[in-house]
Write a structure and sequence with these properties.
This protein is of the alpha+beta class. It has a single domain, classed as Sandwich (Jelly Rolls), CATH 2.60.120.620. Helix content is 14%, strand content 29%. It has two helices and 13 strands. The strands form three sheets. It has a seven-stranded antiparallel beta sheet with strand order 1-9-6-11-4-3-2. The chain has a four-stranded antiparallel beta sheet with strand order 5-10-7-8, with no helix packed on it. A hairpin with a 2-residue loop joins strand 12 and strand 13. The longest helix is centred in the middle third of the chain and has 22 residues. The protein is globular. It binds fe (ii) ion. Fe (ii) ion binds next to loops.
């Protein structure tokens, strides 16, 4: 493995961007206390996880300011994914209130290219967002998972994101599977969102995405 004659290439890595302090703690609190932050939708898998209705960047001036800050990061993340600084917009956003004992089942986000989570409250280390390598679709899967096996970038099945502070944000490709393990801390509040580029193009043809 450590033979200097062997050159290893890590092919086709997946970008995930962790951004510190996108919002101040006062701004996080302002979002949590916003009139639209009424979490009335109970999650299908966990009664201790509730969601607000979907809201949009132009719903109010404060949302517009929050999305302006997120958009600057989306441009950088989109540059990694598509090799160009494109115009990005947030299609929809919503807030998640996870009580102690709540959790979020594994899922990904459809009709979107970049998704994000903005952490609005402290997050217990046990309920950091976990990202998963895809599963084997309908094929059989073989692993070599036991106490003597080393885990590295080529065989890991999951990745636990860094411990976030309130105001931190993570951006990831929307196809990436993720989940939140059972919350062992206090109320965990986050805002999630989906984003699309204005236009992608290849060989003279463009594909546009619009409201
Ligand atoms: Fe999600």
């Amino acid at each position: 493995m450590d033979d200097p004659q062997n050159e290893i290439f890590e092919l086709f890595p997946t970008p995930l961007m962790f951004c510190r302090q996108v919002l101040s703690s006062a701004e996080c609190q302002q979002l949590i206390e916003h009139p639209k932050a009424s979490a009335t939708q109970v999650n299908h898998h966990s009664k201790d996880l509730t969601h607000t209705q979907i809201f949009f960047p132009d719903d109010d001036a404060f949302f517009a300011e929050v999305t302006r800050r997120i958009n600057a990061k989306l441009v950088d993340m989109g540059h990694l994914l598509f090799g160009e600084k494109l115009n990005w917009s947030i299609k929809e956003m919503w807030m998640n209130f996870m009580k102690p004992g709540g959790g979020q089942a594994m899922h990904n986000h459809s009709n979107s290219f970049i998704s994000g989570i903005l952490y609005l409250s402290p997050t217990d280390p046990a309920s950091r967002t976990v990202f998963f390598r895809g599963f084997g679709d309908r094929g059989f899967v073989f692993t070599n998972t036991h106490k003597d096996a080393e885990t590295g970038p080529f065989n890991a099945e999951k990745w636990i994101s860094p411990e976030p502070d309130a105001g931190d944000m993570v951006l990831f490709p929307s196809y990436l599977l993720h989940a939140v393990p059972l919350n062992q801390g206090d109320l965990r509040v986050s805002m999630a969102f989906n984003a699309i580029p204005e236009r992608l193009q290849a060989w003279g043809y463009g594909i546009s995405f619009a409201k």
